[in-house]
Amino acid sequence: MPKELKRYYGRGDLHFLTFSRYHRLPPLKTMRARSLFVQALRKIRERYRFLLVGYVVMPNHMHLLISETSKATPSLVLKVLKQWTSRDFRAVRRRAPKGQLRFAFATRGAGSLTRSWQPR
User: Fold this and answer.
1) Does residue 68 fall inside a structural domain?
2) Which structural domain range is residue 108 located in?
3) Bridge partners for 17 per DSSP
4) Which strands make up the sheet holding 14-20, listed edge to edge?
5) pLDDT at position 24, please?
6) Mean pLDDT for each 10-residue chunk of the chain (120 residues)?
7) What pLDDT sits at residue 6?
8) Does 92 map to a domain?
9) Which domain CATH number covers 81?
10) Closest CA relative to residue 78, chosen from 62, 58, 54
11) How many independent structural domains does the chain possess?
């Protein structure tokens, strides 16, 4: 990001934000991923009380048109949105598919590897 970038806040303007994922990787190529993004956007809008005029979600980048809020700057809103969606995507990736058994831990038994499992 350029060091001389000037941001103007506090005038009640709308802000058009365009952003993408690291190296423009396509995190939003599935309907489930897009739904997670929109749910996070809804929660953040409720938390910071900004007006969401419009948004476009594409596989490798997003556009938002938001108002200013007294609770946070657009920079903070975008930062929190990226953090929450990143956390949600990682949590979804870690979950085992429904019906699949999860191995809790592995221990060495009498000469063989034994596993303790828990149903999901």
Assistant:
1) yes
2) 14-118
3) 64
4) 14-20, 61-67, 52-57
5) 65
6) 73 85 68 84 92 88 89 88 81 62 50 47
7) 78
8) yes
9) 3.30.70.1290
10) 62
11) 1
